[in-house]
Amino acid sequence: MRTPSETNLSAEDLLGLYRRMLLIRRIEERLGEDFKRGDLPGPVHLYIGEEAVATGVCAHLTDADWIASTHRGHGHFLAKGGDPKLLVAEVYGRAGGVCRGMGGSMHVADFSKGILGANGIVGGGIGLAVGAALAAQLDRKGAVSAAFFGDGAANQGVLMEALNVSALWKLPLLLICENNGFSEFSPTGTVTVGAIADRAKPFGVPAAAVDGNDVIAVWQATNAAVRRARAGEGPSLIECRTYRLRGHVESEGSFIQERYRADEEVAAWIARDPIARLASYMDEHALAPASAREAIEAEIATIVAEAVAYATDSPYPAPDQARQFMFA
Amino acid sequence: MARRRMIQAINEALAEEMARDPRVILFGEDVEISVMGDTRGLRATFGPDRVRNTPICETVMTGMAVGAAAAGWRPICHMMYGNFLYTGMDAIANQAAKLRYMTGGQIKVPVVYMGVFGAGRSSAAQHSDAMHPMFMNLGGIKVVLPASPADAKGLLKSAIRDDNPVIFLQAAGRGGEAGDVPEEEYTIPLGVAEVKRPGKDVTLVAIGAMLRPAMRAADALAGEGIEAEVIDPRTLMPLDEATIVASVQRTGRLVVVDEARDACSAASHIAAVVTEAAWGALKAAPKRVTVPDVAIPYSPPLEKSLLPDPERIAAAVRATLGR
Hints:
The complex is a heterodimer of chains A (328) and B (323). By secondary structure, chain A is of the alpha/beta class. Chain A has one domain (19-248, 261-312): Thiamin diphosphate (ThDP)-binding fold, Pyr/PP domains (Rossmann fold). Helices cover 43% and strands 9% of the residues of chain A. In chain A, helix 1 crosses helix 2 (51-58), helix 1 (11-37) packs antiparallel against helix 10 (274-284) and helix 4 (84-91) crosses helix 11. Chain A is globular and about 50 Å long. Chain A starts with 10 loop residues before the first helix and ends in a 15-residue tail after the last helix. The radius of gyration of chain B is 19 Å and the shape is globular. With 323 residues, chain B is α/β, with parallel strands linked by helices. Chain B is built from twelve helices and 14 strands. Chain B has two domains: 2-181, 3-Layer(aba) Sandwich (Rossmann fold); 194-320, 3-Layer(aba) Sandwich (Rossmann fold). Chain B has helices at residues 6-20, 42-50, 58-70, 89-96, 99-102, 132-136, 149-161, 211-222, 241-251, 266-277, 300-306, 310-320; strands at residues 2-5, 24-28, 51-53, 74-81, 112-117, 142-144, 166-171, 178-181, 194-197, 202-206, 228-232, 235-237, 254-261, 287-291. The A-B interface holds A 66, 68, 97-103, 107, 109-112, 116-117, 119-121, 124, 126-136, 138-139, 145, 157-158, 161-162, 164-165, 168-169, 324-328 and B 25, 49-50, 52, 54-55, 57, 59-73, 75, 90-91, 94-95, 99-109, 139-140, 142, 163-164.
């Protein structure tokens, strides 16, 4: 990590990033426990370990900007300002969920916050984000659109189409690749050649590969890309190299028989935990007292407890709701 | 009334709706030069923001339409050939059709995907499908197949104003067909069938381009003393079941003509709906006149042999009357 003078980030900014990452972490840890206990009706894909990416990117965005997310979408939802209560209730399948229980974990969306939604199709959000970028360009209000996608989605053809058309039309688009080391259960290197960031080069799209566990690095790379997009100069690609500390899906122990990664590998990445790293950084540069982080921890514990209480208090939707919402 | 070719009527609908609503945008492959003629002149009138050639990229194009709609615009995504809808299918089937539903009704997805469909011009298997049945089965997509210039204009205007995704399929090779089109402003609501010819002996439902051979069959049958009531559903999702069922309640007989392959065709669906709803009124088993479950061949005599024609339709009608 850098020295504070290089970052343009104040101690307050850093604490804000810390708070956002920790919120995602604690909500997801709780959802992981809830899943294990059998309290969640469907599969959950946790973002634990990758929080710096959503946090560093969304710190630059407002409700007027758009994001399209992935099946691992809780972090993006929370980073973009989605309500933890509405998220948890949705994952619980309750009427009080952000999508009234119609979508669950893989489809959390809040259009009032510019969240086009998590997406159950790998690469499925990329086209939506390109469309929102087109809308932003036509609206001429300086909004941008960010597509989060994984290393797995980088192998979908839609990425090449998106690079081409967004560069051609100079769309205000951020292509944020979260390279978390795995395409579901296949290590990235076994299904992917070359560096994903390099895929932008033939299109003349600026690209950067950054340490995705360094929230400041993600923040800085995004800062440049967002400025460029808002100025009408077109898309950028940022490959954030991170690591999926949890499995592909919390239920995988029930159907995956072989180990697909070594304990040492996981341990090495735990040592690079983005939240702990930011804490050490703040300590090292005496940017915020540990007590500030403790206060945040306590505040978030309350938010998590309240979110779960809201979810469990919320009723299941009435069965006739299954026939609603198909058509406007 | 004014005489208009189908393609002119569609062009007028696009131009009128784009003039009426500045949020309507149109993009697709070669829409500026206009391969089909339906988008001709729109770029000059509405400018490069609202009318854009895309690269050949159906996968992102269909998704882009959904994203732009979610962000407040009303995109018309021109697919050229209906078969190219398959290339852009993820965004249609998984995103457009489901985004409103799976997000609990938070948004509207006003997108029109338009293209030409159907056989009869030796375009061979990859440019000749009648793909409307698979879209009927997606659930969240409206499916519109006009058979006349007037219907094409009125239905397309409604499709553009609709707050849901709509697949608008125009019969390929029929763009040059002329018909009377009202000169004043009008729309035709989605989900409303039209009785194109009244009759008392048999209900003859004809979908899209099948209306013309069905009307010819009805003319021939009239000469034999058989009065067929010809109905064009015009919209297949939602389907105007009431009009069709009410007709069968009177005639007691049903023949459905569909250019789709037989299995799971719109004809199969309509026959099933009528069988359940009007079982007591039926005097004969419903009959379907469809395309066999094969791809569309290139060579003209082969292609012609598969498509419903007035003779096959008339034979099916006679069969329901035991003749």
